[in-house]
Amino acid sequence: MSQVLITSLRRQWNEWAERPANRKFLQEDQEAQLRAALGDRTKTTQLQVAAWMLGTWWLGHGLVRVLEGDGDGFDEARLGQSLRRCGLLLRARAQNPAPARRGGGGQRLPFSRAHGTWTALLGLALDDPGAEPLYDLLRNEPESAFTEAEHLPLFVRELLTVRAGERPTVTPRLGPYQEVFAHWQGDARLLAQRLVDLCDLHLDGVGTGGPFDDQPCKIYPVEILAFRNVREWLGLPMPKVDHPIMHSNLVTMQAGKGWPQHELVQRLEQELRRR
Prior knowledge:
By secondary structure, the chain is an all-alpha fold. The protein has one domain (about 1-275). The protein has twelve helices and no strands.
């Protein structure tokens, strides 16, 4: 059943990437909006929105290229990640939130928690070197910020906590993600099975308003790749996860070592440094 669903989602994703109206609105129109807003303090919101939407196009289109066997698509996807990350950090900088104390009652995120969660997972999966300020914002969110249903955002917070060398808070509030932390240092076979369960969960939520309804994330197992990369970061082995979503080019092909550069991303990063 998983393979049938993946095939259907893959076809829909290709259609999304090939649709002329999507290219015009998400790429051409948003690039024009972005260029018009750069350097104009009265268009801060337009700048943030255009960066997110153009980034979504580059991420989605680039990963479709990878899915079809073009490894250079990773560079396009990484540029999209850079745009979306910059857009979120610009919003955070514009609102200038006070640093939240972990476990305290600090301010909430200045952007959608779903957007922050997707961008952090993609940053970990794609090895984004510019995402550390975003990771800090998410890692320092207070416990009171999360609803009982926000299992994935809480998983991301705890994954970033482990990556920072701190002990995660493993509670039932993590829902289905609790078990991967419970088996973090345990039996590799049990950990692998829990990760397979998360792959099933990933697909179950696509198209139903679930946590992976972001176009670039629908059949890209970002949470598994983020988990793998954090373990590698810490020098820990990663068990083999045998699931259909792990067998596509998105997982088996490797991105290049260097992070790509683009004039628009560089200008956004300059905006960040000025604020």
